[in-house]
Amino acid sequence: MLTTMDEAALIKEAQNGDLNSFNGLVLAYQSLVYNVAYRIMGEPDASADATQEAFISAFKNIKSFRGGSFRSWLLRIVTNACYDELRRRKRRPSTSLEELTEFSEGSDSDEPATLGTQTDSPETAAARSELTSAIEACINALSAEFKVVVILVDIQGYDYQEVSKVIDKPLGTVKSRLARARSKLRDCLQQYRELLPASFRHENEAIV
Amino acid sequence: MKKSNELSRRDLERLSAYLDGELSQKNSTRLEARLKAEPTLRDALKELKLTSRLVSSLPEVRPPRNFTLSPEMVGIREKRSMYPIFRFATVVAAVAFAVLVGADTFFLSESGMMSDMIPAAAPEVMLEEAPKEVFEAAEAPAEAPVEEPMAIEAVVTPTLEVENEIVEEGEVDRSQEEEPLRAPDGDPQEYSREGTEVRPTEPWQDAATVSPEGMPIASEEAAQDAISPTDEGQAPPLAQPSPTEIPIIVDILDEPGLSPEPILIAEVGLGIAALLLAGITIYLRKQR
């Protein structure tokens, strides 16, 4: 993990054209960038392409970085790279969006490896995988604008202010998009209630 | 009773922001009061909270590979390829500079040795190689110099090729040498004046300034030195100048040590070029 001073030094050297310093930043942020790209794009190959494009674009434009949060600046580039990639895929139906959004039970051959050291039983692991797939399917069903906001707040844990910087929209837009995204996700997840863990189910049943 | 999914959009936004602690203190207090009173609002809040927890439970994925950039990816191959070129150019310039300075120093010391040796050798050279020219040089100032080219023609007649070669080289040398050399081609008066007044600073220059055309450009002292071994009143037998000997004399004029100014300029130029190239190379090295 980079300290603020290390990061500032690497950014300055990268702004002077030092590719090695920029690669130091790449190593520090590639996991975050790839995860955000993966949640937006919904599949590994497109996410890797978007991540690579984002870093190339970031290096070429790093002189335009005028301070502030480098993470926000970088995430903005990533989200834009994802929007571009999604637009490209929309124009070329051969790599259909259905492929990205389709919830295919148990078809996790293209799934990237997940981090963590959970030692679940095979049944629990299977159930967790199904739930994960269900949530991902619901997220993928959202439009890109809603998706980005819910990913940044609920998955990455950023506050509204930072999300506002990333998407370059006012705070009110962030609030509105997030509320609508959560509402849509809630409706989508209703069809997978049987997959929810007992605690969630109990909580949910109490609500419904 | 309103169902949770029938909430107004505004209430939904308030609940979502309240969930994230992004609602102002005033609005939070107001909403909390409503939550106590409105079960539908409470249910909606629970649903949103559950949804948020489910989304946040998604596992972090591991990147399939490193995304570090190569120079080719960002199009900086040209910059990298410039470095070895400039490094090579710097080495070449530095070596050329060193060689030139070394050679200059060497020839300067050689010419210093020559200047010690030539005062004794010069008369012999003049006698052996171009006795007629030297004698004429001694006599010319007093006589009509316009006749000299004719004498040269008489001397340099073995072959037409040799004559042409000698004339060409002689003209080149004349243009580079002192003004009096032009005299035979130009104003005889001036030649006469200059030819008698020029005093070479170095004795070896007397030998060197014997023109391939046999121009009487040597000073009086040199001429007298040349004459001294022979009878002053008689010209020595007319020696046919060997075509191979004349270029040798011309070659002496071309020795680096004899014209130091162009070499000095070249040395300074090369030195500056080497320094500039070294600076650029260091800069490119830092940029890599």
Based on the model shown, name its key terms.
heterodimer; A: 208 residues; mainly alpha; Rna Polymerase Sigma Factor, Chain: A; Arc Repressor Mutant, subunit A; 2 domains; 0% strand; globular; B: 288 residues; 3 domains; 12 helices; 66% helix; rod-shaped
Topology at a glance:
The complex is a heterodimer of chains A (208) and B (288).
Chain A (H helix, E strand, L loop, with lengths): L3 H12 L3 H23 L2 H17 L9 H22 L5 H5 L20 H19 L3 H12 L4 H8 L3 H19 L8 H10 L1
Chain B lengths: L8 H11 L5 H13 L1 H18 L20 H53 L1 H9 L8 H8 L4 H17 L11 H10 L5 H6 L11 H8 L17 H9 L6 H28 L1
Helix pairs in contact in B: 1-3, 2-3, 4-5, 4-10, 4-12, 5-10, 7-11
Report on the structure:
The complex is a heterodimer of chains A (208) and B (288). Chain A has helices spanning 4-15, 19-41, 44-60, 70-91, 97-101, 122-140, 144-155, 160-167, 171-189, 198-207. Chain A is mostly helical and 208 residues long. In chain A, helix 2 (19-41) crosses helix 4 (70-91) and helix 6 crosses helix 9 (171-189). Mean pLDDT of chain A is 84; it is low at 99-109. Chain B has 288 residues and is mainly α. Chain B has helices at residues 9-19, 25-37, 39-56, 77-129, 131-139, 148-155, 160-176, 188-197, 203-208, 220-227, 245-253, 260-287. The radius of gyration of chain B is 47 Å and the shape is rod-shaped. Chains A and B meet through helix 2, helix 3, helix 6, helix 7 and helix 9 of A and helix 1 and helix 3 of B.
